[in-house]
Write a structure and sequence with these properties.
It contains 13 helices and no strands. It has 342 residues and is mainly α. The longest helix has 32 residues.
């Protein structure tokens, strides 16, 4: 059996193991993060202290996941979910509850990744005049949501694998091997759309964990190296969203829900563009090519980043306004080619 997996929102789909998922600060290091290393009056930030601080946020994430699971389960029972259209045999909600729970964790992961990315961009770029919390508290919330995003992504992926084991009829060691390969080995999932969507979610998972945890050893690898690596967190988020839109059965067809997922990406693209246009560090500002002190390649990369962010904003507006969001319009006659659960 091969359920869909990202990459996170209303009704659950299948992200990021997805993924969606994503972890800490999406672009560069932010000024408030580095105050922990220079201000001796502040307690040193450690993984252990952030794990303790992440407990309340983690409990909220579990409540949200439970609510999403209940919504999905109710829609399956009522046969109003597009998942039943894509995979009719899943109308047996009780028989596939673990799969639906995996979906719920995937959506929570994407939602927490979205929150983490927004917080990171707010902290590292131009900030609104008034924020409900101080920069220091926002920065800690950014770190705790990052850790919980990783946990939610892992839960999503593990439940996906557990569902494969549960519905496999071969011997136990064969079931474990098959589930591991299809869930965690790129290229191991060979069914339809999953041939691309599952590796995207796996890439999000394998990037999210190290990129999120590198913050806690940034003094050993060097702040500059950490800043360079940390910029790739935005890639984790993009992979998670891509995984979800490509493979999430709840956003399989055109409609308001799929368009809403696209709409939620507009604030991130706008914040990223503002962050690039008004960087906190002088060294990152885009001066004229003649006045630029670094290499021409570096100047070109910075210009390219700004153009790409502006292009993303324009593309998102076009998708939202036109409604052409890449969803399927007519259910296929044979859904087994896209979501094969044999």
């Amino acid at each position: 059996m091969k359920p869909s997996s990202t990459p996170a929102v209303p009704e659950p789909a299948d992200p990021p193991g997805t993924a969606a998922n994503t972890t800490s600060d999406t672009t560069d290091t932010n000024a408030t993060t580095d105050t922990n290393t220079t201000d001796r009056s502040q307690p040193r930030v450690t993984l252990r202290s952030d794990l303790r601080a992440s407990i309340p946020d983690g409990l909220i994430a579990l409540v949200v996941t439970a609510a999403v699971f209940a919504l999905l389960y109710a829609r399956i029972k009522a046969k109003t979910s597009s998942t039943v259209t894509v995979m009719p045999f899943m109308a047996d909600a009780g028989g596939f509850w673990m799969y639906f729970l995996s979906q719920a964790f995937g959506w929570s992961a994407l939602l927490w990744a979205w929150t983490t990315v927004v917080l990171g961009l707010l902290l590292s770029g131009p900030r609104p005049g008034r924020l409900p919390l101080s920069a220091q508290r926002l920065e800690r919330l950014h770190r705790t949501t990052s850790l919980n995003t990783i946990a939610l992504i892992l839960a999503h992926a593990l439940l996906f694998a557990a569902e494969l084991v549960r519905h496999d009829t071969t011997r136990w060691y064969s079931r474990l091997y098959t589930a591991f390969v299809e869930s965690f080995v790129p290229g191991g999932y060979d069914s339809g759309t999953g041939q691309l969507a599952i590796p995207l979610g796996q890439a999000a998972l394998y990037l999210a964990v190290p990129l999120g945890l590198l913050f806690y050893i940034r003094h050993r690898i060097g702040p500059k190296t950490w800043r360079v690596l940390h910029r790739f967190v935005i890639v984790v988020y993009v992979l998670s969203v891509w995984h979800t839109l490509l493979y999430g059965t709840n956003v399989w067809y055109d409609g308001w829900f799929r368009t809403t997922v696209w709409l939620l990406q507009l604030p991130i693209a706008a914040l990223l563009l503002a962050r690039l246009l008004r960087p906190a560090r002088r060294s990152e500002r885009l001066s004229s090519p003649g006045a630029h002190t670094g290499s021409r390649a570096g100047w070109g990369l910075r210009l390219g980043g700004r153009l790409a962010a502006a292009g993303a904003v324009i593309a998102l507006l076009a998708v939202i306004i036109s409604g052409n969001d890449g969803g399927r319009t007519v259910p296929p006659d044979d859904t087994s080619s896209t979501h094969n659960h044999d």
